[in-house]
Design a protein that fits this description.
Blueprint (H helix, E strand, L loop, with lengths): L1 E7 L3 H17 L3 E7 H7 L7 E5 L5 H10 L3 E7 L11 E6 L13 H7 L17 E5 L3 H7 L4 H12 L2 H4 L2 E3 L4 E5 L5 E6 L1 H5 L2 H6 L1 E6 L4 H8 L3 E3 L30 H9 L2 E3 H5 L2 H9 L2
Helix pairs in contact: 4-11
Length: 299
């Protein structure tokens, strides 16, 4: 019998979600047993020996420390977070679940069944935009403070800006615009959650407006990259982004924003179909379908 430990925090909704995931394993998955454990147990005692996997949601309140230690121990990790499509926690909401990754960042050929049934009507794939059809700005979406701590990427934004300053013409460099997350999670140097920081500029200017004015989007892990891809805007992203398989390269900017390579449409529909197999409704988690789908496809 294999053992999964599902770690919850004091945040009620995420605790309920992780508990549903755990209970589904016990009810529907042969050869596995799951135990629900509070994150304080891990913070005090670490991960128990002789277990096979952990599950949790988010990287705050100790769960980021848990995921890091599990990775170091080479344990399977089931990570739950915001959905790729139709995100949010209202009504009959969706959740992405990634095995051994922060986000699914590859491209796998699957049928269009889930994409067509659940997501295509609300998430149109707009025509790919030529240089003349795109906006003027270079929109940069830096990692949040918490993500910087988690992935040890405190210098990401500075490094990107330095690269662009050296690479772009002075005219193009003036088009750089940085968009922070409207409500940014803040942690201290040890990764302890402090609270949310409100970024007024991001609240006052809509994401829709920023994307319409963008010629290209450079992001770390942000879901904004997926919004851009759906709108037909080229993106350059890190490996912890779901659009990584469609990403252009920073070096492509050496030839300017009108580099012909940006005219080449990546495999957007294939990505949408694949991501549709990597997020689930609560009922799909409860029934064990999520677990089975993840372990059949996320290999």
């Amino acid at each position: 019998m294999k053992t999964l430990i599902s770690y919850i925090t004091d945040k009620q909704l995420t605790a309920e979600i992780v508990s549903i995931f755990s209970n589904a394993v016990n009810t529907h998955i042969k050869g596995w047993q799951s135990e629900i454990v509070h994150i304080n147990n891990f913070l005090k005692n670490g991960i128990p020996a002789n277990i096979d996997a952990i599950a949790t949601q988010g990287i705050l309140r100790g769960t980021g420390h848990l995921l890091k230690e599990a990775a170091n121990k080479n344990l399977d990790r089931y990570y739950i977070d915001h959905a790729y499509f139709n995100g949010g926690y209202k009504d009959d909401f969706w959740l992405r679940i990634s095995k051994n990754k922060h986000t699914v960042n590859n491209l796998k050929k699957v049928t269009n069944f889930r994409w067509e049934k659940f997501f295509s009507q609300d998430n149109s794939i707009m025509p790919w935009r030529s240089f003349s059809e795109r906006g003027n700005n270079i929109l940069i979406i830096p990692p949040t403070n918490a993500i910087c701590w988690y992935f040890n990427e405190n210098d990401w934004e500075k490094n990107i800006i330095n690269f662009l300053k050296v690479t772009l013409s002075s005219k193009d460099f003036k088009k750089v615009k940085i968009r922070a997350k409207p409500n940014e999670p803040i942690v201290d140097s040890k990764g302890i959650y402090i609270g949310l920081k409100e970024n007024e500029e991001a609240k006052n200017i809509s994401l829709e407006d920023d994307l319409n004015e963008a010629s290209i989007v450079i992001a770390y892990n942000s879901q904004v990259a997926l919004d851009a891809v759906l709108k037909g805007i080229p993106v350059i992203v890190d490996k912890h982004n779901c659009c990584y398989s469609l990403s252009f390269k920073l070096s492509d900017l050496k030839y300017g924003l009108n580099n012909p390579i940006f005219e080449n449409e990546p495999k957007r529909e294939e990505l949408c179909k694949w991501l549709s197999y990597c997020q689930f409704k609560l009922e799909e988690i409860k029934s064990g379908l999520a677990w089975k789908t993840i372990n059949n496809f996320q290999i």
